[in-house]
Structure formats: C-alpha cells, structure tokens
Amino acid sequence: MNLALWICAGLLALVALAGGISKTFVPKEKLAAAHGGGWTDAASVGFVKSLGVLELLAAVGLILPALVGIAPVLVPVTAVCWILLMVGAMVTHGRRGEFALVALNLAYLALAVFIACGRF
Known about the structure:
The protein is mainly alpha-helical and about 120 residues long. It has one domain (about 1-120). It is about 80% helix and about 0% strand. It contains 5 helices and no strands. Helix 1 packs antiparallel against helix 3, helix 1 (about 1-25) packs across helix 5 and helix 3 packs antiparallel against helix 4. The two termini are about 15 Å apart. Its main location: membrane.
C-alpha cells in the first residue's frame, strides 16, 4: 500500500510540477493558444501565475514532507488542496465543453483522494 501511495504521489507531483512550470513561466498568450489553455483568455495574468505557484507548491508538498519525515501530515493536506483545485478545473473545463479535460482532471482528483485517504 505504501508503495502505491508513493507512486501515486510521484505521478501527481509530476503533473503538478509540469502544470506549475507552464502556468508560472509560459506567457499567457502561449498558454491560451495551447490545447486546453483557452480558459486563460478569461483569466488575469496574476490569477494564472498564482495557480502556477500553487501547483509548484503542491508538487513539493506531495513528496518532500514524507521524504524527509518532517510534518508528513502536509502530504494528505496537500492532496486535499489538490482535490479542491481539480474541482475548480473540472467546473472551468465543463463550462467550456472540454469534457476530455474534465475526465483527465477527474483522474487526477481520484489520485489525490487515494493519497489523502491513504496518508491520513
């Protein structure tokens, strides 16, 4: 079970890292032109960058506390925060009719639920 939790946390951390880097460092215009990035047209640059920073923090929070053994309760707390982020993403993509992205966000949400339940 512990191995499965580590694998899921690692996968989710990679997803968060990739999303965080793109939202934080890629210009909003390039994000808007990318597949699934159309939602950024209606969002401010600050909002997109803030989501990127939150995703970078999530990538760290899913791995580092358990790895170093300092405040490991932060791993499931981070997973719960990721669940909230994915609910928002699902609502946003659902309103835009991007149902394939809603399904992808649902898969990420399921991983986060597994991590939260397993680590609490």
